[in-house]
Every structure is written in structure tokens, then in C-alpha cells.
Amino acid sequence: MPIIATFIAGLLFSIGLIVSGLINPTKVLNFLDVAGNWDPSLAITMAVAVATTAIGYRFALARGTPLLGGMFQLPAKTDIDPRLASGAAIFGIGWGLVGFCPGPAVASLGVGANAAFIFVLAMLAGMAIARSLDALSVTPVAPQAGIKGGNK
Amino acid sequence: MATDTMVSAAIGGLFIGLSAVLLLALTGRIAGVSGFVSRLLPPYSDNQLPVRLAFVAGLVIAPLLYAATTGIPVGIEVTSNLPILVIGGILVGFGAVRGGGCTSGHGICGTARLSPRSIAATAIFMTTGAITVFIMRHILGG
Lengths: 152, 142
Fold this sequence. Notes:
Number of strands of chain B: 0
Strand content of chain B: under 5%
Distance between the termini of chain B: 25 Å
Helix content of chain B: over 70%
Oligomer: heterodimer
Largest sheet of chain B: none
Structural class of chain B: mainly alpha
Helix content of chain A: 55-70%
């Protein structure tokens, strides 16, 4: 059941991208082009999506547990660290270069666009690089202060 | 801005919001596309691969379903050349994993939860995105 529900959520999400035009990179670039021929319509899309989510989340979370069982998996972090800031900044540059973010890029695979296939492959590579850096950083890089001083 | 553009922008936003609500209400998950996609890659820390594939399948199948039911093919226009596509893709993938989310997870779900991290991330990527478009279109003229 969670698999079917998640599939339907993916369908709805993608239909939203199609209907709003968020799936189209040129429209996204026109939305980001505030100094040029600015297309503000995607701001409406974002606002409606955020408002709908905010209201719906309130009701969903009030139940205490998800309807299909399990627990709510919400991010626990609250601090704005350099990692978040640099990641978001890099993400924005890539987004502004092409006009694709992950949702529209993956949905565009269904349109059969060659550009989407190239972009998604490159995106997966970028994700793999970031994840392997994380795996490396698990092993401590800096020598531990406690070893030399013996104050363990 | 034409009225029908505004109406379709709003209806599209409604669908995206309903998708996020449905996913959380039923399965307890945040609708973060980069989270679903990046965890399709190994190493796997859980056994949720089928769920992630289901979301991605929904994303990919929707344009086909939309075209089949409405008779209107989904058109997208990409103006970037090959090197820009590759560089953009790598930056988007790397940045989304490093920043812990993208336009959907931070921009919509996190902002709706009033998460300070998500609001900050959204403000940052909207800003660097707009600066990048400015440089590409108005300074380099690409």
C-alpha cells in the first residue's frame, strides 16, 4: 500500500509540474530572470503549493501517525550550517544554468527529451559525488586531541 | 500575465501541494525529489528502494498519462548546450545532496513546515539561481 500511495503522489506531483509549466526549463529561467522579461507565474505555483502543504500537513500531523502505519519522518535538524548554505548556493547555480531542478528533470524523462536524459545522468553523478564525500568524512580527518594528551 | 496562465499556475501548485500532503498523511514522508532520487544510488541504508522507485515512476509516467488523456503533448524547451547541461546537472545533484534538499523538499515541504533551514536554503538557491540567470542572459548574453 505505501508503494501505491507513493506512486500516486509522484503522479500528482508531476501533473502539478506539467499544468503549472514548472516542468519547462525555459519557463523556469524566465521566472528567475527578474531583471529581464520576468514571468512571475511560478511564484503563484510556489505560493499555492506551500499554502496547500502547510494546511494539509497540519491536519496530517494532528493525527499523530501516518494513515498507512509507521512514523512521520521529518528532518530533525534546525541549525543553518555552512553545509546547508553552500549546498543550496551550488544547487541554485545549476538550476539557473539550465532551468531544471530534480523533479522537473526526472519528469521530463517521460517527455522523452534528450536533454533531460543528459541532465539526469549528470545530476546522478553529482549526487554520487556528494554522497561519497559524506562517506569519506565519516572517518575523522583531524587528529584527535585526546590521543596525545591522554585526557580521554 | 494572462488569466489562464495564472489559473494553470495555481492549479499546478495545488496538485503539487496535494501530492505532498497525501505522501505525508499516508506514508509519513516528505515529498523531496532529490531525497528520493539520490537514495536510488547505493549504498543503501534501508530497504525502502521500491518506495523510492514508485515515486520516480509516478513522476516519469505522468507526462505520458497527461498526453494520453488530454490529447495535449507535454512540451519542454531546453536552450542549454551539452557542456552547460552536464555542468548544471552535476551542480544540481551535488548541491541538492549537500544542502539536504531541493525545490520540493526545502522550497515547498520545508517552507510549509516553517523550517528555518528550508527557508534559508530556499532564499539562497533562489538568489544564486537568479544571479546565474542574470549573468548568463544579461552579461554573457547566452
